[in-house]
Amino acid sequence: MSKELSQRYTALDVLRGMTIAGMILVNNPGSWKTIFPPLRHAAWHGCTPTDLVFPFFLFIVGAALAFAFAKYNDTLNSSSVKKILIRTLFIFLTGLALNAFPFYNTSPNPELSFGENWMVFLQNLRILGVLQRIALCYMVGALIALWLQKPKKIIVAGVILMFLHWLILVLFGGEDPFSKEGTISGNIDVALIGISHVYKGFGMPFEPEGFLGVLSGSATVLFGYLIGGHIRKSKEKITAVSDLYTIGLISLGVAMVMSIFIPINKPLWTPSYVLYAGGWSVLMLSLFIYFIDIKGKEKIFFPFKALGLNPLFAFAMAAIMSRTFSRIIRWETTVLQDDGTMKETTVSAANWFYQHICVPLLGNNQFGSLLYALLYVSIFTGMAIFLYKKKIVIKL
Question: CA–CA distance from 225 to each of 215, 243, 275 (Å)?
Fold first, then answer.
């Protein structure tokens, strides 16, 4: 076996696991009204630590591809294409199933029959989401990388994807093509899948994991693929760290200059956001390679390593459990109101745990909310450790 194929980077598993932990953490606060500030997304333009979590994962998807497809000689052939398409379909359908879970309307209209409520449920099912974005960007990025093969050509392809994304936004958007009201991105999704199937959390029909963003999201995957290929072929890991540190700083610098004209924006996944998040991804990977693969500090990162070996399974199970305890398991209870009166209300298991465990410990504030999120992450980290010790890897 060649040296480049024998090079193993535990740092990739750790960074993947830490990213999944971050994804679960930011999706499950104790209360959406009192989120711990660093766990909030930017309102629109800008980038918080939370806004880096998703691109980190897409970056790692690309980096892992550089190792996974070495057995196909990094070429596009029937075996590699089949693997890419099957995995794309499976991840996309898993994301759609998570959107649909528990596969019925948990707040049915009492005036409608079960069949009628079911139809309303299907008519308002969100089609896209995090796993769907991962699936589509994985497919586009993997096919391009294996088709072009050479790093210079892949860089050109990534630039073209970002330029095409920017061009569509500017040519077909409004007076301010990067604003919520002026972007064409949401209109594209509404036209393709219908307004009832689009996310409305921004106060308007806008899908943050929409189809247009697949272009620039795929550029993030290609960025990761290039970095993964570079460290795979590096003769010495310390050399890889030095190179990655330089690349990361350059990427951040270009992103900041570009942000003067193209704002850093996660919902739109703008080119400046690709380079900004990519720069931080590279710097974090270089840091982990140094401490874990060179200095041998792997033990302290063991929980994240375990989580990194079953990442999408942990993410899916976290989503299922969240919906189960917030939408399915509920009961009637009496609560004390501010005016001293008692009121009958419905409480979910998740809300009960937050109010009776986290709030008494740290209060009904951002710290109580953070405690709930951390406890929630610990459940799936424990599950991942169990699977690791049993040598079970569940790939999605």
Answer: 15, 15, 14
